[in-house]
Structures are given as structure tokens and as C-alpha cells.
């Protein structure tokens, strides 16, 4: 089960109240970070989460407000004596971009740092969890992530044995092949509830998101505008609160969390009201708000 | 006359109380920024200074805590509709480093942005002020800056005329030549008091700093350690509070301002006490502290 810490809920430009996008999801002691806007390392310092416990960082796209906090955070981990390995992923071009930014400033990263470009359809294992990559639409290479607590496919070994699956069969099933009429999903246990979260990053409302986040417990969706500025949302490939709620509704998720709210909206109430009218189980966290999983959803703690 | 806003007074790693190095010096409406650690744009947003009024940014060296806030700030200025030109300077390799970081993230910089590598001995004009570059010692290419209100050399035209200096003579004097036994300093007005500030960036105590900052009204010197950790200061090419005070004393400056204080010192009082014992006119500002020039020095306002 996950805890959620909203380190940065702003959009494009930071304000007094909202830092740039960064969301930490924790399972036990292990933390996964989604996006890493400039200033994320300081938000982490101020927060209750230890940045040394981050196991994976997943960046949705290469806009500065989602990325420019990463080089500094990685170097700070090094200066702070980190030795644990760290996986950082992003869309095509991500590793090269990060390497460029790290190279310009001297810094010791004395821990195993794996940079990986991933794309829609990819599945990444990290700290015993699984991250699935899905396509978003934001005018540049962009993607969202579904984090599942535990392997996305947990095999029912008794069932596999009863169907005669053994040895090399598992590798063939993993590769999408059929073995004696058996497919991978036939030998997998049903997913555990309370254990999946999707993070969209910046995107307009789109079918690929709805398909990818179907049935997740928590959907963290961008919500840059209100419907009164829908034309702006359209022009900049962003979503309105209502559109995000429609995605949540159509995908049948558990709880909708809205972040990436434009600074023009000082008051979050209209954002919450607009989304709740379509999808009642919605929250709009402030920076540093911390949520825990409870029966039937999440609650601020 | 200058105002001073200390946006980031921390060292290496940000903390709850101290952001990464960034100091704004204002004359009238025009702002000059020294260093631009990660998060500086948000510090500016929260502060009383408008980041749109920044005319020049001077980076002392390419360590992340002094540089990684720059790409985001420049892009935010663009997104915010800036059209005024901006000059950004740093040591050798600076322009290329900045260009690398800007290129990895799409962003519109729709204003004239001049990037310039400068080095010790260079003199740069910006918004009617002059910035002189001097060498520091920090183990990598590093430098400090002296900002003077108005041209560094204001010529006394009546005196020049009385000495027979005219036409091309001025260019020759500017180039360091003598003309009929007259040198540039012979025809210059004395500097206006209350109008010079030096910013060291990271450095150990060194003669090049003492020579360059001689007689400035305000010296903003790094002070990473206390004398009890002098060996650490030595090992990492940083200064103790006492060493910074010795520089201020030997250079005969007006006021000493200490920043870049290690997070290990939660309490700034020992820092102030150590420096004041050597150089009484010392202040140790906190983030967002604002100082104005008054008769005989500066005071918190």
C-alpha cells in the first residue's frame, strides 16, 4: 500500500504556495518520485521523506518545470554519501539530456546511477514494484506511469504447475508467446487492491491515458486550467479539471488527485468543485500534503 | 546606492532555512544577480524583487549549487513575456554549459539573451554599472565580481582638458598607455562612496581577493566553516568565518557580509561572533533579509 507526498503541485512557474511538479509515492521505506521540477531537492529536505530512500525517479517529459530539479538532486545525493543504487527513467532523449546537465557541473555521483530511456508499453521493475509506461499527449515526447505494488504479474505457481508450465516456458510466456494454449494472464494472480497509482504528467485528455489507467486505485492527473479556459488547455496540450475528472470517470479509477494547477488559480476550491461535479472522489492537495491509503481510497494524514 | 536582498545563503545543499546561493543587488529598478543556485527563481517569486527587472546575472563557478537555477529562471522569464535584454556571465565554459542545459528542455526565450564567458581582469558594463572580474581559489575555474555603481572610471573632463587630453588620447589611456605623462587615474574623479560591492562566490582566503576588493563598501564573502573546521575549509577550498573577516580587514572594506554557511551550523551566532572578533562591521543575513545602504554602511530594512 502506498503513501503519497505532494512535493510540488504547481504548473510551469513556481509560486509562493506551489513548487514545481514532484510527487513522491512510498511503499514501506522505498520512495518512487514522479517528475523532478526545479527545487524538488529542497522540498524533500523540508518534508518528512528522506531523499536518500528514493529508489526510482520517473520523468514524464523534457520540459524544464518537470526536469530541472534532477541534476541537483542527484548530485546532492552523491554529496550526502549515498551508496544505494538509483534508477532514473524518462522518455526518449532523457538519458542524454540528463548526462548533458550533469556534465556541465562538477559533482561526485559515487553511487550506481542507472539512466534509462523508456517508452509506452515498457515495464520497469524497481524496488519490488512495477512501473508501466503509457502514452500521453502534450505536443512533445511525453508519457505517464502506472506504479503497481509488487510485480505487475504475480504468478500463481500452483496453477502454472497444474497447466504443465515449467522451466523455459515462463520466459516464452513473458515474451508474449502461448505455450500449449496457455497465456501469461492465465497463470497470474489477480492484482491486489489498494496498490496501483497512475501519474500522467502534462497531457490533454486522451484515450491512451484512459486505457492505461483503467481501474487504478489512485489517478494523479494534471489539471492546469478550469473549463472557463478550455481553449488555453487545448492550445497548450493541457487538461481542465473537468476533463481530468472525465478521464477518472471513464477509466473507473478509485480516487482522482489533481495537481499541476496554474498559478492563476490562487484558490483551489473551484478546481475541486469543477472536478467533483463529474467525479466525486477527487482531492486537490497542497504542497507537502501527505496522504495514506485507507479502506476505499486515500486520506490526508 | 545599492539595496541587497539575500535570496539564498546556504552552502552546497539546501535546507529548510537556507536556499542555495543567490544574491540580488539593486540600484533603482535595476537588479544584478550573483550566482543562481537551484530554486532561485522561486526565491525571487516569493521576494519583494521582480525577476523581470534583472539586468545581469554573474555566476562565479560551475558547481551545481551556484548554477542549476539559471536555466529554469531564464525559461521562466521567457514564459512570463520578458522582452528586455539580459546579460549572463560566468567563467570559461559557462556559455557552453548554459546552452547545453537550455537545449535539453524545450523553452522559449523570446528576449535578447547574451551569454558571455569572462575572466579575471575583465570589466563588463551592465545597466550603467560596471562589473570587474577577479580571481578566486576554489579548485576549479572560479571568480568573484566587484559591482560599481556607474562606470568604474568616471572622467573629470575639466581636468582632462587642462592636462591637454583629447580625442584619441582617451582610447590610449583606456588601454593603459601614458599620454604626455598622464595616466587614466590622473583624470578620473574619486569613486562615489556607498557604491561598490564585491561578491566572492566560493573561495579559500587568497591574496587575489584581497587585492580586488580593496576599499569596497560591501564585501559579500563566503563563510562555509568555523575555525573549528579549518581543515575542512582547507581541504575543500572554502573559507572560515575568521578567514573571511581577515580578508575584509586586510582589504579595508566597509561592511562584511557572510553567506554560504554550511548547514551544520543551524545557529548563525557563532559565525557572526567569530568574524566580528576580527572585523566588527560584519553581518550574517538570513534568506530574504533585505539591506539598504545607510551612512557608514548597510542596515537590515
Could you give a short description of this structure?
Two copies of one chain form a homodimer. Chain A is α/β, with parallel strands linked by helices. Chain A folds into two domains: 260 residues, Metallo-beta-lactamase, Chain A, CATH 3.60.15; 35 residues, no CATH class.
Number of domains of chain A: 2
H/E series of chain A, N to C?
EEEHEHHEHEEEEHHEHEHHEHEEE
Query: What is the oligomer described by this structure?
Result: homodimer
Q: Give the end-to-end Cα distance of chain A, rounded to a whole number of Å.
A: 15 Å
Structure commentary:
Two copies of one chain form a homodimer. Chain A is an alpha/beta fold and 301 residues long. In chain A, the strands form two sheets. Chain A has an eight-stranded mixed β-sheet with strand order 6-5-4-3-2-1-14-15. A seven-stranded mixed β-sheet of chain A has the order 7-8-9-10-11-12-13. Chain A is built from ten helices and 15 strands. The first copy, chain A, is globular, with a radius of gyration of 19 Å. Chain A has helices spanning 40-46, 64-67, 70-79, 94-104, 157-162, 169-174, 207-213, 230-235, 241-251, 269-276; strands spanning 3-8, 22-27, 30-34, 54-58, 86-90, 113-117, 123-126, 129-135, 143-148, 196-199, 218-222, 255-259, 282-283, 290-294, 297-300. In chain A, helix 7 crosses helix 9 and helix 9 runs parallel beside helix 10 (269-276). In chain A, strand 12, helix 10 and strand 13 form a beta-alpha-beta unit. Helix content of chain A is 25%, strand content 25%. The model of chain A has no long low-confidence stretch (mean pLDDT 94). The first copy, chain A, folds into two domains: 3-152 and 191-300, Ribonuclease Z/Hydroxyacylglutathione hydrolase-like (Metallo-beta-lactamase, Chain A, 4-Layer Sandwich), CATH 3.60.15; 153-187, no CATH class. The A-B interface holds A 12-16, 19-20, 38-39, 41-42, 45-46, 62-65, 67-69, 71-72, 75-76, 79-80, 93, 96-98, 100-101, 103-107, 140 and B 12-16, 19-20, 38-39, 41-42, 45-46, 62-65, 67-69, 71-72, 75-76, 79-80, 93, 96-98, 100-101, 103-107, 140.
Amino acid at each position: 500500500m502506498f503513501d503519497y507526498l505532494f512535493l510540488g503541485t504547481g504548473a510551469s512557474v513556481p509560486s509562493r504556495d506551489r513548487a514545481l511538479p514532484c510527487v513522491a509515492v512510498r511503499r514501506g521505506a522505498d520512495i518512487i518520485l514522479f517528475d523532478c521540477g526545479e527545487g524538488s531537492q529542497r522540498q524533500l529536505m523540508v518534508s518528512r521523506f528522506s531523499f536518500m530512500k528514493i529508489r526510482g525517479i520517473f520523468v514524464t517529459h523534457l520540459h524544464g518545470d518537470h526536469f530541472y530539479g534532477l541534476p541537483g538532486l542527484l548530485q546532492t545525493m552523491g554529496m550526502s554519501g549515498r551508496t544505494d543504487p538509483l534508477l532514473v527513467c524518462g522518455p526518449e532523449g532523457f538519458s542524454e539530456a540528463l548526462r548533458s546537465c550533469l556534465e556541465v557541473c562538477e559533482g561526485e555521483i559515487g553511487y550506481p546511477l542507472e539512466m534509462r530511456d523508456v517508452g509506452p508499453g515498457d515495464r520497469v521493475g524497481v524496488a519490488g514494484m512495477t512501473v508501466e509506461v503509457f502514452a500521453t499527449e502534450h505536443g512533445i515526447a511525453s508519457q505517464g506511469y502506472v506504479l503497481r505494488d509488487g510485480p505487475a504479474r504475480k504468478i500463481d505457481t500452483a496453477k502454472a504447475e497444474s497447466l504443465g508450465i515449467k522451466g523455459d516456458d515462463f520466459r516464452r510466456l513473458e515474451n508474449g508467446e502461448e505455450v500449449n494454449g496457455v497465456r501469461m494472464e492465465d497463470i497470474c494472480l489477480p492484482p491486489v487492491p489498494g496498490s496501483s497509482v497512475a501519474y500522467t504528467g502534462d497531457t490533454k485528455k486522451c484515450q491512451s491515458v484512459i486505457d492505461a489507467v483503467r481501474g487504478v486505485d489512485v489517478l494523479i492527473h494534471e489539471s492546469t486550467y478550469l473549463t472557463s479556459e478550455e481553449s488555453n488547455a487545448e492550445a497548450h496540450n493541457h487538461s481542465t479539471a473537468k476533463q481530468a475528472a472525465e478521464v477518472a470517470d471513464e477509466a473507473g479509477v478509485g480516487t482522482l488527485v489533481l495537481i499541476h494547477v496554474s498559478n492563476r488559480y490562487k484558490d483551489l476550491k473551484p478546481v475541486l468543485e469543477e472536478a467533483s461535479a463529474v467525479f466525486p472522489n477527487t482531492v486537490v492537495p497542497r504542497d507537502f500534503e501527505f496522504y495514506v491509503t485507507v479502506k476505499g481510497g486515500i486520506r490526508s494524514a
